[in-house]
Amino acid sequence: MVYFVSHSIRRVIITTFGASLVLQVAYFGSVLFLVWRARCNRRAVERTGPRRCDPDHS
Predict the structure, then answer these.
(1) Do the domain assignments include residue 14?
(2) CA-based angle 29:31:35, to the nearest 5?
(3) 13 lies in which domain range?
(4) Which residues have C-beta within 8 Å of that of residue 55, sequence separation ≥ 6?
(5) At 24, which helix (H) or strand (E)?
(6) Under 8 Å CB-to-CB from 58, ≥6 apart: which residues?
(7) Of 2, 6, 17, 33, which has the most beta carbons under 10 Å away?
(8) Residue 27 lies in a domain
(9) Is the full-model pTM beyond 0.90?
(10) Please, are residues 11 and 2 in contact by the beta-carbon 8 Å criterion?
């Protein structure tokens, strides 16, 4: 798309590199967020004890 607008291979390479860099940063951030959330959930379970899936069985 960039090539059809600008007719510049240089601009295409820079745009592609920039877009891939943004995607990599977003992916890394989402992985860090998931690790952080899993750690918080694990700490909450450790504080309250194991939870049962079925509330009818005590």
Answers:
(1) yes
(2) 115
(3) 2-46
(4) none
(5) helix 9-48
(6) 52
(7) 2
(8) yes
(9) no
(10) yes
Mean pLDDT by 10 residues, the chain (58 residues): 79 92 98 93 79 54
In a domain, 54, yes or no: no
CB 51 within 8 A of CB 45: yes
State the DSSP code for 53. Answer: S
Judge contact between 11 and 19, C-beta under 8 A.
Answer: no
Q: What domain count does the chain have? A: 1
Query: Could you tell me the two tokens for 10?
Result: 């240089």
Tokens of 18: 């920039």
The pLDDT score that the predictor gives to residue 16 is 92
CA angle 23, 3, 17 (to 5 degrees): 25
Cβ-contact 14, 5 below 8 angstroms: no
* Rounded Cα–Cα distance for residues 32 and 30 (Å): 5
C-alpha–C-alpha distance, residues 23 and 17, integer Å: 10
